Protein 1
Amino acid sequence: MQNLKTSIRYLKGIGPAKSKIFSKLGIKTIEDFLTFYPRTYQDRSLLTPIHRLQVGEVQTFVGQVVDYKGKRFQRKGINTTRLILSDGLRNIALLFFNQPHLKEYLPVGQRLVVTGRIRRFGHELQVTNFDYEILSQKEPVDTQRIVPLYPLKEGLSPGTQRLLRRTMHSALDEYLSSIEDPLPFQLISQHRLLDLRNALRTIHFPESFLEMYAARSRLIFNEFFFLMLALGQVKRSRGKMRGIAFRSEGRLISRFIASLPFRLTNAQERVIKVIKTDMALSRPMNRLLHGEVGSGKTVVAICAALLAKEYGYQIALMAPTEILAEQHLLNLKRFLDPLSVRIDLLTSGVKGETRDEILARVARNEIDILIGTHALIQEGVKFGHLGLVIIDEQHRFGVLQRATLFEKAQQGGVYPDLLVMSATPIPRTLALTLYGDLDISFLDELPSGRGKIKTFCRSEKDLPRIYDFMKERIKEDYQAYIVCPLIEANEELGLKAAKEMFEILQSGVFQDLRLGLLHGRMNTAEKTKIMEAFRRREIDILVSTTVIEVGVDIPLATLMLIEHAERFGLSQLHQLRGRIGRGSARSYCILLTTLAISNLVNSEEDVEPLDDELSKAVKRLKTMVGTNDGFKIAEVDLELRGPGEFFGVKQHGMPELKLGHLIRDRRLLELAHQAASLILDEDSTFSNYPLLQKVVKDYLEMRQESSPRD
């Protein structure tokens, strides 16, 4: 039986030189190559007589070599050979460069099948960018069939496609019989899937598009199925770990809730109850807190933290960036200082004696909640008594990053509880993929009495009216944000910056109002001072960068103007908009962009811009204007960016799916999840399925190796 881990260089006809081409495509082994799937296909099965070929079209035809005509370009040292083919009614020329032995290989009288783009040069028909094969009894590879086109990297010649096809054909002949199907037969039969060998041959060389779709379905099912098995196994193994049974009475939680100026929603009360039950168990909690912007995740997370604190344990709160970590510090101190909860911040910006002092205090159990990035646990911070890890997720941590983090957080074989907060709504099926290792709680209710948010898209020409509207709102005792993409002006980008805008507006149109400036380069004390002044209504308009994206809650802030809105991602725009509409009054979000984009966004006709980036910008802003529903926004964001970019594949530890698409192939994802759950329920160690056991083990090891090291 052949070894699929064999280096690609040992495949017949490859060797060291050609293996470098494969290496550029990320292909190192035979297995890599067989799973290097086509990007698309070209139907070359229809043969057209030469005299009926259409100029400008890509077509396939048969002709006999009748003549050669050569020409040498002295200056460039290029020999051009025109090979003339005929079908008896019309001639056509194929152009070859620097191929002196062509006449020996393709002598007059040889019959060829050719596929290429037809053009007219003077009175002569020519074919460019062509593939050809000698007409023979052998199975065709490059013509007379549906032909695979593989994804290539820049710098590789067009002839690489031909090399890949022919090499793939021989690799399948040589190695396909070595492949064993790890799926149980009853599963293949139940879902009417192709067997693995058939699917692999067909995905590369389909006889019809119907066959190709069947092969894709089987291979996509494979990707999802093994992902679900791996996640399920991680989840079940955690259920056997030793955790902390928090038996707190909940006095701190009661005092905290009583101090809030609002009532908890039913959803918050329900989830807090679930978390209390979860934390009382002797196994570690692994829970995702999933909710819309403004649904009150922070309050729920604080309740979990207070439960751990009351029982004598410490809490690590990790945010994806230092700026967001600082925002959490400001918020938590506001809520928890009255309860004498000791909170501190440890980021890469904290250095020297201050850092040493924080490390010493956390080791002595003198800090209750330590906030930072996920480097908190990975940089050798020694907690005296760590009981709860809270991750503000935002799609930056992955399944395997969580697993690694979890392992490093344990003390003496006892694992802390884990609570993950996800700010962006994710459709349920995608939550299965992203968070299949966690139990999920949904905060599916916003606090009552929230005012509606209306969103508009406008251009620079509308600014005078917008500024007048802002003045009117401020006269009514409301406040406003102006968000800029940069801190300081950048001439190359030509974008407005927060500092510049603050100075212009303060000395110009808003000279009679109180303006504040907030950005990421300010230290924590400066940010706290500005935010508290804004909260106390000592600032009318806050000019800011995206540091307000998370955790800022000002009920009287009812207006947001976002400069250069086309430069922001959809999820980020939604997060920013979530900073307004926190009170009972109606709020307004104004997306400022170019006149051209504004016209397209506000057009009732569905005009599709030619430029792809422009088209995406228009779709993002149209979506923002059209809905406040975070789930709909997440769907569009996924569609525009694709799962890899949306979830940040490399950072996230998400599987780099070769064929599967989490939105398009949602039905297969559901089926794979159901099938994996049945097998895990029956036998979570796969002792009855040795092939499955090996594949899942290899899968987890591979993901662990490819998971980034921070």
Note: Residues 649-653 have pLDDT under 50 and may be disordered.
Protein 2
Amino acid sequence: MVQFVLPPPSPSPSPSPSPNTTNSIRIGNRLNRHLQNVVILVSLVYLLVIRCESLSPEEEEREKNALLEFKSSLENGDMVLGNWNNPPRCPCPQVGSGSPRTSWTGVICNNGNVWGIQLDNMKLSGEINVDSLQQLGQLRSLSLMNNNFQGPFPEFRKLRSLKALYICTNKFSGDIDDDAFVGMSSLKKVHLAYNEFTGDIPRSLASSTSLTELRIENNQFMGPIPDFPHTLIIFNASNNHLQGPIPPFLDEITDASSFTGNDGLCGPPISSVCDETGASYNPYSSTDETHKKMSMLTVIVMIISALLAITAIATLFMLYLLGKSRIDHMRDYSEGSSFSTCTSPGGSVILTEQQLDSKKPPSIVGAQGKLTFLKEDGPRFDLNDLLRASAEVLGYGSFGSAYKAVMMDGQALVVKRFRQMSNCGKVEFHEHMRTLGRLSHPNLLPLTAYYYRKEEKLLVFNFVHNGSLQRQLHGKHTTEKLELNWPTRLKIIKGVAKGMAYLYTELPNLLVPHGNLKSSNVLVDNSMQPLLMDYTLLPVVNVEHAQNMMVAYKAPEYIKDGRISKKLDVWSLGILILETMTGKLPANSLAQGQPSKYGSELGKWVESIQGEAVEEVFDKDMKDIDNAQGQMVKLIKIGLECCEVDVEKRPEMEDVANKIQQLDERDN
């Protein structure tokens, strides 16, 4: 223990001190004693604070053993959770900071305790050892989505302090006992979608007074929908075998899409009307005469629909021909674009303590055909203004279309239309857009406005004339092509690193804060500052598209083991650095946003650079390199470090960003 010791007062050199000297000594002694007491008091307070915010060695050991015991019950836990094998003593070493950062994959920390476990998209299987998790006294959130767990519903009710449970997209099956959620009075968010559960919705779940989110779609639940507490703000029960009337309260917070695929349901918001017994019937069925009239009407409608479809196809073909002449911008704003079953891999389901404790339901803004604006001081226009604007097609990408719209006042905007967000609920989408709206950094392209519909979403940004870094590096030599000399490339990479560091700081609970970092998603403004585009969209993208199309999921650890961590973005940054410095396109499929095999292609591309002499890999078109070779080599080496196959040896984003900022334009 640290001790604070003050030296004793020195004895007076005079054998016969004067009265004044004696008084001075007495005052000095008293001051020293008071000062000593103050120091001791401060020391005690300091030690008490540290003690309050620290775990005892026994508690640290218990949490570590609980996690290791949980891992041992998983069939492939040793392979996927490799850095749990030889861990430091404490899973959550950053005592008192409240930071969720930890060296244990998937472990979320809060004030020195294990607060959450997020092991999504890791191909895990085996038994979920709830008894081991029960030893984590501060565990509040558990997410095991998109894995291969199967069998009956585990005894999660033993985790009485749990606030959020996410087990979507596994192979759980069978009835869930009525008392499966008894005693879980703090439970707020339950996502059970995309499994094979049967039987009635558990009564103990319906009686939970804290429940705010329930997703049970794409199961085989039967029977009626119980009356849920009015704390509920998100509900989806589509594609089950439910029957009977829909409780009126649910009509207030959902739309018909939350109940589709349940033929036995009736009442608002769906069209089936309940009869006196509570069974559904079709109010439009009638006599044979009515059927004949309806049949004739159906034929007429089909003919009109066919004519409209032909007209639409012809119009789209003309737009396509117009768009082909703008192939560079097409790639900038479309092919490079990327926007779940519950949420996408790497999406944020582990919320903060404050978010889980909030009792205020999120407001729904921007419905009924209205744009929602995210900046108070930004421009204002309505959806009709946007639709009436002079527009040109920028491209048709794997995630949707992109258009350039010029408003009446001359302002140029980019409107990106996404169809691969259909599994994201209305409230989730609005919440995530507000999160994006709060982000503000010189190296992020801000989201101006958005529009929500179940089938499609629109995101609106300012138009950036210079286009993307990819276009400037690999596009045809035109008058619009910028000169990317060494100082400019260093400036761009520094800006990208700053933007990435900001995302990692502001979104600590997201496993993959960007998710699709590549040269076509880095725009360059008139001052040669980079602007990151299509960032932080994983939580709202359908999982299949995210896995097939987004760059982060082409990293070697995900290709090999399905492992997801924050170092996926580090790998993407490494690829971007090497591309910028060499002028070489990493892989044609990466540029075009194509799925499947380009993870292995990129690995070979990196190996080809590693095999060359460092000085020989620089882009021959890069100018103004005099007295800069040393700094250029350092940047290449940072890029190669980021592309390290062994994820444990790959640096953290914060460390990479700091190294890049230390580089100079010239060697010293």
Note: The longest strand covers residues 390-397.
Protein 3
Amino acid sequence: MVTLPAATGEHGSSREVDISTEGSRMKKRTKKKTRDSSLAQKHRDLLKFAAMMQDSHVNYVILGVENQMEVHYAMPVRNMVYDALQYDKQVAMIAADNRRNKRFSSETMRNNGEFLSGFLRTDKILPVITLTLYFGTEPWDGPLSLREMYDINDSKLLDFVPDYRVQLIQPMTLSEDDFEKFHTSLREVLQTIKYSVDAQKLTEYITQNERMHRLDLSAANVINTVAGIGLEIKQDRGKVDMCKAIEDLKAESRAEGREEGREEGREEGHTKGRAETIEQTVAMLRNMKIPKETILSQLQRTFSLSEEEANRIYNTK
């Protein structure tokens, strides 16, 4: 479970909102989607009911999260569709509740429009906030608003066209002060992604961060996946010691290095012996006055050499 601090105003306090990473589609979307007449077929990566505090007031919202490993160049449209579907669902649920509880009386209903829609003049819906978490290490170069996607530049016309903005969280652009605003394991996830392009900084960050000694299992799995570290995750009561995992990886790399060194020595000896055999073959065929073309053909066939390699070896003798 990774947790995200709820967004608040300048003077507001915040309550944290749980963002589950388990089962979310964090992998690159490769599955082909087919068009369906029903927009309800679309699904978010995550949807949560959230309470956000501004001063002493609590505001309730629907918080949606989209996890992106790659830049999506139609993200404004995609998120807008998700939000619109959620608003439509709220209206439908309120209307169904009104009809189920027979709220359409002469005292409550002002006009036929309320009866036909099922939505009363006094009914309200919750705002929907969609956050896009971009886990890629390359800068996001896609549009962040509908206006950036339009093929028009007429400002007078654009005044009549609604816009929609993407609320993007991109670890690579966050400052240290920004990271301090996250009080849960999402901070470690985002910082690891930022440092993943620099092996030394990444190692220093993980080994020198006390919070990495007892990291949530789901957060550790996210870090391992999106940063491509390749650690062997060993949990203890749902917690993972990432510092020990790094040390284990280093020890394994050193052992592999020693084995590779021995293997390279064996391979080097094999390569040297093969080169000597080829040289001896060329010398023998020359002494036998075998034509050059025949020698080259024999070298290519016997030693699996290219024509260029055979020519080079022949001309150096």
Note: The radius of gyration is 32 Å.
Protein 4
Amino acid sequence: MVSLMMKKKAFPAAFKCYYNFHKINDLSSGNLPFKMVIHVQEDSGFQRYQKEMRKDPALWPLYRGFFIDLDLFKANEEEASEMVQCSNMGKNEEDSSLADEDANLMVKLKFLPYKLRTFLIRNGLSTLRKGPSAYSTYYLRQMKIWNTSAAKQQELSKMLDEWAVYICTHYRKKSLSSWTYLSEAEPFLEQYAKRSPQNQALIGSAGNFVEVEDIMATVEGQDVDGGLKSEKDIAPSSPNISTKDMVAENDGLIVFFPGIPGCAKSALCMEILNASGGLGDGRPVHSLMGDRVKCKYWQNVVGERRRKPHSVMLADKNAPNEEAWRQIENVCLSTNASAIPVIPDSEGTEINPFSVDALAVFIFRVLHRANHPGNLGKSSPNAGYVLLMFYHFYEGKSRQEFESELIERFGSLVRMPLLKPERLGSRKGTYAKDWVKWEKQLRDILLGNADYLNSIQVPFEFVVKEVLEQLRAIVRGEYAAPTSKKGKLESIVFAAVNLPVPEILGLLNDLAQKNPKVGDFLKDKSIDNYIQNAHLTLAHKRSHGVNVFADYSSFLHQKVSVEVTALLFSEKLAALEAEPGFVEGEKVNSKNHWPHVTVWTGERVAAREANTMPQLLSQGKATRIDINPPVTITGTFEFYI
């Protein structure tokens, strides 16, 4: 019912249902365990859903990040009635209808609270790498911030210590990441909850059968956070916030900058301070520059937030890593605030959210600074080195991963325009081993190309306008999560010649009529249903890299003749051997060692396995039927994203 209502109303949510492999031992002909995760993609969905619940009390409550166990099993009417009675749901005659309608569906909701799951388990993974002692210090400090009672601290500490042993044992030889926590935390918490009623109460499971009133009593009335302040008394953590209801006027707002020196954050903060009307909601705006704070910056932010709890704080300091982001989350939680990251826009690279030309612009700007309060300007002897170190803080994340994590943590983000999209491509530079020599060369190159570096930057007035508009939109509750931009080549997955399916089917039918071996092979294969599209793959991003697609760009959307020379088939595969022809006299070469068109695969066999057909043939495990004379089929060259 929840799924149907949300789809009908076009709610920003996804319902992902898959086999529950943690219960694989329960799998039988009469029992199928599934798991459904409800992923709300925009926070506005929660407010819209609450309005629907007021209209329809029968709707289940919707909470952030919970999942549902679905156990489908066969049961006769008598067994179904017994299960319903045991669940205490059969309170009157009307409820007995469940025996007929819902007998074969058992539903169980899981409710580990979002704050605990996010802050104590997921965000604690990086600290856990330093050892159990560091992790214990981390979660105890977090619970102190939340004013958790001593009794609940003891309960949570016991559970978290066991979690630390569990996850470290499972990932002894692997790296821990924030993407690990949900798939591993789920089975751990499920087993932990089963061990005692006290554990189940701590985890917050709703039980095997659910009723809306029972869930509401569990989640709202009994304070499932385990001794924490109730949701009505404490501000949601920053990842929850992006709508008008959540960014309320009586809450604070922190605007912070996951950037690099030279990204213009201080100048932008000054312009926002002076902007007429601020962010458009009447809250006062003030700024705190990191270079002018001599002690711990984020502790100063906490003090400023408490002195001005209903204001907008511009955190004028680079926040380049997860440690800084966790501190910001803690500030939000302890001072009743939400946070919006503002990031310089960039295509990035495969392993860094910022491109090299963006870094060059940042260094160029820094080398024009005079009297910088942080002593990072043209008079600094190692400015290039410092910025390169900042650049490496972001190493290991693509642009998409970088933006996705910020949105996951803080609910929204603002892109600060940086480089003109129509600018020239990247240029090769000089890199010297000697850092003193490198600094001089770097300055000579950048200052010598001042006109170019100035020309590719977006005008600063436009930057101010764009950032203000995006901030105001978020405050008004009109935010929509941006999609990460990719370069044209980076977005391409493979290049291929798209071939007409009727001609491929016609060729196979002709071969089946002329050759008994082909006829016997194809007679029970339902090839017509299998081939929905046909293409001759020439290069794949995974095997050949993205740069290879540049060589094919002149062929895009052009007609290409393809010569089909043979059919190869085995027990699980069938493919046509083919060779691409010419476009306006230029040969179209395949990067694949054996160019082919896959026409059939067996159950659970990936199409890419057709690449092994020549090896299977040499091993006597495949059959080759030559097509003589070869058949020519004309297709269209395309890039596939």
Note: The two ends are 35 Å apart (CA to CA).
